[in-house]
Amino acid sequence: MPKIVIAQQFCGPPNSGNGGYVCGVLARDIDGPATSMLRARVPLDVDLELTLADGAAVMTDAEGSLVGRGDVAAAALLPRPPRPPSLERARAAGDRYLGHEQRIHPICFTCGPERHEGDGLRVFAGQVEGAPAGHVACAWTPDQAFADAEGLVSTEVIWAALDCPGFFAWVVKEGRHGALLGTMTGEVIRRPRAGEPCIVTAWPLVREGRKETAGVALFDADGELLARAHQVWIMSVPPPQAVAA
């Protein structure tokens, strides 16, 4: 069966694959919108099996246990992004990224400030000035290291760039850390070129118990939509309950 390895470079937590990157691996051979679901911790630097059958991508570990699955999705499941900030305002929002002041996920492939250019993506989304709480954005210019032979950024890297901003949308809105990506439904409309300035945005949608949903999107510098996704995050700690007076 086909083998795949998620290398340590593509970690989220130190001992697990970056959720958006792995979701992108599951989605990359599916035409149009796709839904990727993560069912277990994604081990790093070991052989995993990735099979394509009946329009679905299935990833299993050495014991045959399900790690994740990608399926065709309906476009209706995708969010309608708010109008993006300008590139200048997105850069200013990135200066307010909480990870600059707090050690939240310092070595994450997407949002880790301890990763250097060409090794990590360095997507640092912060609150957009004047926008509702939790509407975050940043500027992002993909490094040549993440491009294919045509100079276009790979699908899985685009999904990875959309990963953590959805997490930080809820951190900024409610001030809590501690959630794991469970499901991501997305589509890539146009892959940007390496070196092309882009804008990443995210905004909170709905929280139901321990489930938080977010919308995320990627635009070019002129505001053209390049990719978008709907995310489901599962909180590792239940939200505080209101205390009756």
Task: Label the structural class.
Answer: alpha+beta
Distance between the termini: 60 Å
Give the rounded overall mean pLDDT: 94
Low-pLDDT sequence parts: 240-245
Task: Give me the Rg, rounded.
Answer: 17 Å
Outline type: globular
Question: How many separate helices?
Answer: 3
Amount of beta strand = 25-35%
Would you kindly provide a brief summary of this structure?
It contains 3 helices and 11 strands. It has 245 residues and is an alpha+beta fold.
Describe this structure as you would to a colleague:
By secondary structure, the chain is an alpha+beta fold. Helix content is 15%, strand content 31%. It has 3 helices and 11 strands. It has an 11-stranded antiparallel sheet with strand order 1-3-4-5-2-8-11-10-9-7-6. Strand 3 (47-53) and strand 4 form a beta hairpin. 44% of the residues are buried.
Explain the layout of strands and helices.
Layout: E1 3-5, H1 19-27, E2 34-38, E3 47-53, E4 56-60, E5 66-72, H2 87-94, E6 126-127, E7 136-140, H3 155-174, E8 179-188, E9 198-208, E10 211-220, E11 225-235
Antiparallel strand pairs: 1-3, 2-5, 2-8, 3-4, 4-5, 6-7, 7-9, 8-11, 9-10, 10-11
List keywords for this structure.
245 residues, alpha+beta, eleven-stranded antiparallel β-sheet, 3 helices, 15% helix, 31% strand, globular, disordered C terminus
